[in-house]
Amino acid sequence: MKKSKRNIYLKKKPLTEAMSILFEKFDFDSYIGDEEINSTEALGRVLASTIFAASSSPNYHSAAMDGIAVSAVDTYGASESSPKRLKIGSEAVFINTGNPLPDDKDAVIMIEDVHEPGDETVEIIMGAIPFQHVRSMGEDIVATEFLLPKGHIIRPFDIGALLGVGLTKVNVRKRPKIFFIPTGDEIVEPGSGPLTFGKVYESNSAVIGALALEDGVETKRHPVVNDVFENIKSAVADNIDDYDIVIVIAGSSAGTKDFTRSVFDELGEVLVHGINIMPGKPTILGNVKGKLVVGLPGYPVSAIMTYFNVIRPLIAKMLGTGEPPYERVTATVLRDIPSRAGNDEFLQVMISNVEGNIIASPLPRGAGNITTMVKADGVVKIDSLSEGLMKGDEVKPILLRRKDEIERGILAVGSHDICLDLLSADLSLFYPGHSLASVNVGSLGGIIALKNGECHLTGAHLLDPETGQYNTWAVKKYIEEPVTIVTLVHRTQGLIVPKGNPDGISTISDLVKDGVTFANRQRGSGTRILLDYHLAKLEIDPTEIDGYDREEFTHMNVAVRVLGGRASCGLGIAAASAALDLDFIPVDEERYDLIIPQKFRDDERICALIDVINSEKFKNKIGALPGYNTKETGVEFSVE
Amino acid sequence: MKKSKRNIYLKKKPLTEAMSILFEKFDFDSYIGDEEINSTEALGRVLASTIFAASSSPNYHSAAMDGIAVSAVDTYGASESSPKRLKIGSEAVFINTGNPLPDDKDAVIMIEDVHEPGDETVEIIMGAIPFQHVRSMGEDIVATEFLLPKGHIIRPFDIGALLGVGLTKVNVRKRPKIFFIPTGDEIVEPGSGPLTFGKVYESNSAVIGALALEDGVETKRHPVVNDVFENIKSAVADNIDDYDIVIVIAGSSAGTKDFTRSVFDELGEVLVHGINIMPGKPTILGNVKGKLVVGLPGYPVSAIMTYFNVIRPLIAKMLGTGEPPYERVTATVLRDIPSRAGNDEFLQVMISNVEGNIIASPLPRGAGNITTMVKADGVVKIDSLSEGLMKGDEVKPILLRRKDEIERGILAVGSHDICLDLLSADLSLFYPGHSLASVNVGSLGGIIALKNGECHLTGAHLLDPETGQYNTWAVKKYIEEPVTIVTLVHRTQGLIVPKGNPDGISTISDLVKDGVTFANRQRGSGTRILLDYHLAKLEIDPTEIDGYDREEFTHMNVAVRVLGGRASCGLGIAAASAALDLDFIPVDEERYDLIIPQKFRDDERICALIDVINSEKFKNKIGALPGYNTKETGVEFSVE
Fold it and tell me: What is the pTM of this model?
């Protein structure tokens, strides 16, 4: 590889400048045309012209009830003491709801109020007032009245209204057409068989395609193209005429195999290479034969952020639907979140309602982490001029989840356990719309968060080395308000080692053996306290342990380090070891509790959670996991 | 028609009881099955089982940046003053983002930090720390971790996460299948040609079908069936095996041509006939061959309310998605709204944000009025035990429109003019997402509403009989705060008469002529004040005018009464007359203004509105209407 082969970024541009360049180059208002379609098939389509009523609705006077049509004047004077008889046919005409009112009639008497002593007459015992039980012509809408504006996205009711005013056809914007070309040697078609080492399934075209579909776009995709300049070039050239936007996925950066830029350069022109958004920076925008071409970053979160910030607004412009319809909330940030100035950063957050305070908790960064988008409730923008958010700042994240679901979410901050995952799954299952999100900061970190009103509950397994008791001591020490402690599970902690235990590790004492590297947990975590407790008992100096300084934040990450050969052993729970098919040497059993402020105990969400914990289904599920014991699961006691 | 042929309602049942009967009869949890589909095609589908990660993501350590893979220990000590050289191939391996990290390397140095003095070595001036710029295996998610719960509706991101953890197939609920059978002699297929007298287009299957589609249902429809028992019966019998729910539209009441009930009776059993919801009361629920059959009321709003209250919850139950996802706001009712006890009434409302107060204003009732659903921002439930809402009551309407759109809505209460419609259309066009809703209560009613903080602005044309001035006098008399008055248009008021003026009406004096009936406007309306002004000048006693007592609330309704032959003349604006192709005798020119509290003048919504009023496009549009003059349109002055 020669340095000269690497692309050189065009000057990275602010997002607004990049958009201005596009708006100068393309006339998005007339980028796609209109078409006439059946009103019955117009759901989700965008009106191409303002709609006025073509006819009145109803377009005749009609009966609003089943009964008889009468002339009100013929009925005057009727009463219970002196009923009146009307001749059927001339003075009284049987009529069903929706039938046109005869020209010489102006009121309807409900069938329930009609007596029928004879075949030729009916009896009434109450007069009718003019227009009683009559739907007047134009009651709903009068011809020529305004119904819906151009640019409106047609909803189910709108279809009814269009038909109601006589419009069986409607003029709508065509659907923009996007063509995706996924590229990359490491990319494999989903469905083409199991993954081999170093390969990943192509997913960006499905994710961005689904977002585009929701935005009213038609999409199609090319099979995965390898990192070969000519192949990518012909995929673009062969399809540019048939689509409104062609998107090349991945290869938009400056690596040796990033060909998107040179393809656009050769077929047309590159307008922008690099935007000051993060994730999403390596985005290319170009023009090939008058069509917009996009080089989309390959990292899934980057691709999504580029879609949100660049492509979605352009689609809205093409369709004439105005600003994308992001719902937002106002939330408070509970700790400093530094961010590099110079880029608009888009940070995924969890959003929780803790006692009416709407809290945004940042999720781990990482443009490659699509599951973070799954966990996220919203996305916060940190402006390029700022160096981050400060504790207490108000932010206005866009929402990725329905607000009512966010409102029903429980936020747990504290120690991680696999049972929390299962609890979260069962909560959502038994109480649809409910959810439990966890932030893993260790037991002690969780207790501090609880004290500061930053979460609903804390998972903790804090051993008191002096008494051998769990958690109560920490609650008494740090938390002033009354809490309830619910035992989630007893679990076995032990040493996680590679399959076959190649280093022959059998006790904590082996951690100082030559060649043994250890995967440690972070300070404040219950597992770390447990380790330090055992080290002190054995009088082992922690600095003698290779790897003691590098901290992992979950049991799973410890196990992953062992599996990946980065450590020869770690302390953690049996379930994490079993999940990755590693070996396990038991060390101790500990109690893992949920600590819940008393004030939340009757909250509908907490009641649902505790209901799940006490269910046989849930107990059986966690009881079946290796290293778990449910002997006290659901046991609850108060600490004042 | 014989009385005996009429159906007799089963006892009307409370909604909850009706639902209980269904839940006893059908096992909705297992009503539809599951199927395996490609993850890439799973948008909007419902997970049939809880998803745990099948593999870790990423499932190998990989480069997070373009650069060189190194062993951190080989780089220690490098600095600007003493750079270090690494051998390409053994100590430094060129690597692109996403590539697997070689087994013996544990860090990546960005290409920007790599110097290349030779072909065989590279130079670095800074040491690397272990795992720098490395995406560790499992960074996103570790195998066996919980990803998504059963019952979750798959979003675009979820598709990426499924593929990311190696799941190219996913087990989802089948989509429920609904079959619609629209019935009615007066019902015509949309697209079968123009409507003849007394006919309406079939629209319920399209509206309810679109709602169901949004809820994840597959729908199909039968062509319109006439009111013939055998035809409806065979339409049900022929299709019941192929669908999960069969819905017969219309004919669910007790009219002579209402056959739904007897069809269900003959093919299976009727479980419920009549529910205490309004609109929606004449709903039939039955069981034919173990399938749910529904008799849906024919009025469009009734059909929608039955869908909302009965069918949508059942679909959610079948799919396992929990409560339907209605968004709600808390709003205040500004006047008493009586409602008949015994039914849960569902009332359509407009929702406005006036100075932070969320206000719900009722729209006119009428189960046949589909355009009311188009205008509505939300639906309020008035409980069957209550006799209505009281002024000041808090309600929690479900929303039919996006909250951000509701927030951007302007509420005008006052006099009606066709230009308000056009203004509303152009506002939505030039400022997508913005809207202007009007409540027509006449000029004086509007001024009182403005005084009470119930709206953003008032349209008024209030003549001061003494000075000949418009509106300023009324503002000074009733409103204490400073306002700005923006002239919308000058317009001609006159007598609206049938085409050809059969009664030979030429002046206001003719209103007392024998045989002339008049369509009057309501007290407090500018038009009524204008009429009374002329009557006083001419010394005519209003009681001599036939029809003076019956009040209409808009110009259009006056014109409709004349068109429908219910009145031989009315006072109104030329545009209303022209819209319905009636004749018009000019009486007077008047000024129609918008009265806006000064405190709202800089509100972004009002600025947008005034911007539209001053646009040439809008002025040209209203200037082209008969009887309108834009000589002072947009002129603005303050009244302190």
Answer: 0.89
Task: Kindly tell me if the per-residue pLDDT of A130 is higher than 80.
Answer: no
Tokens read off for A93 = 């005409």
Distance from CA of A481 to the nearest CA of B (A): 32
- Tell me which residue in B160, B253, B321 faces A66 most closely, judged by beta carbons: B253
SS3 for B416?
A: coil
A268 and A181 share one domain: yes
The reply to whether A130 and A234 lie within a common domain is no
Q: How far apart are CA A562 and CA A555, in angstroms?
A: 11
B5 pLDDT above the threshold of 70: no
Q: Distance, in angstroms, between B222 CA and closest chain A CA?
A: 14
ipTM: 0.89
Number of domains chain B is built from: 5
For residue A94, the domain's CATH number is 2.170.190.11
Among the residue ranges A138-152, B161-175, B391-405, the one predicted with the least confidence is A138-152
Whether residue B159 is found in the same domain as residue B205: no
Distance to chain A for B404, nearest Cα, Å:
7
- Enumerate residues 6+ apart whose C-beta is below 8 A from B244: B31, B32, B176, B177, B178, B291, B292, B318
Residues of B in contact with A422 (CB under 8 A): 146
Distance from chain centroid for Cα B611: 26
Q: How far is CA B135 from CA B113, B144, B151, in A?
A: 19, 19, 32
Chain A closest-CA separation from residue B55 CA (Å): 10
Residues A181 and A255 in one domain: yes
CB contact under 8 A, B370 and A580: no
Question: Residue A262: which pLDDT band, with cuts at 50, 70 and 90?
Answer: very high
How distant is the Cα of A511 from the closest Cα of chain B, in angstroms? Answer: 21
Neighbours of A620 (CB within 10 A): 10
Note if the bond before B156 is cis, omega within 30 degrees.
no
| B158: nearest CB among A184, A368, A374 | A374
Predicted confidence band of residue A117 (pLDDT cuts 50, 70, 90) = low
CA B284, CA B9: separation in Å to the nearest integer?
A: 10
Percent of chain B surpassing pLDDT 90: 68
Is residue B70 domain-shared with residue B123, that is, in the same domain? yes
Q: What is the CA radius of gyration of chain B?
A: 34
CA distances from B465 to B471, B510, B629 (A): 11, 22, 22
- A193-228, pLDDT tens digit by residue? 888 888 999 999 999 999 999 999 999 999 999 999
In A, minimum Cα distance to B141 occurs at A371
- Specify the CATH number for the domain of residue B345: 2.40.340.10
**B228 and B373 together in one domain:** no
- Of the candidates B149, B195, B404, the beta carbon closest to that of A428 is on B149
Domain extent for A99 = 62-135
CA distance A60 to chain B (A): 7
CB-based contact A206 B163, cutoff 8 Å: yes
Residues of A in contact with B111 (CB under 8 A): 6, 254
CB contact under 8 A, A149 and B321: no
Testing the interface with B: which of A49, A317, A377, A429 to mutate, by most B Cβ within 10 A?
A: A429
CA distance B91 to A164: 76
- Write the pLDDT tens digit of every residue in B135-159: 888 788 877 788 999 999 999 999 9
**Closest residue in B to A421 (Cα–Cα):** B146
Chain A residue numbers touching B94 (CB-CB < 8 A): 1, 256
Q: Which of A19-28, A462-471, A556-565 has the highest mean pLDDT?
A: A19-28
Domain assignment present for A532? yes
Contacts of B300 in chain A (CB under 8 A): 160, 164
> Do residues A218 and A162 share a domain?
no
Is the per-residue pLDDT at A233 higher than 90?
yes
Asked whether residue B112 is domain-assigned, the answer is: yes
Backbone φ and ψ of A193, nearest 5°: 115, 175
* B143 or B38, higher pLDDT: B38
By Cβ distance, the residue of B139, B191, B435 closest to A369 is B139
pLDDT at B470 exceeding the cut of 60: yes
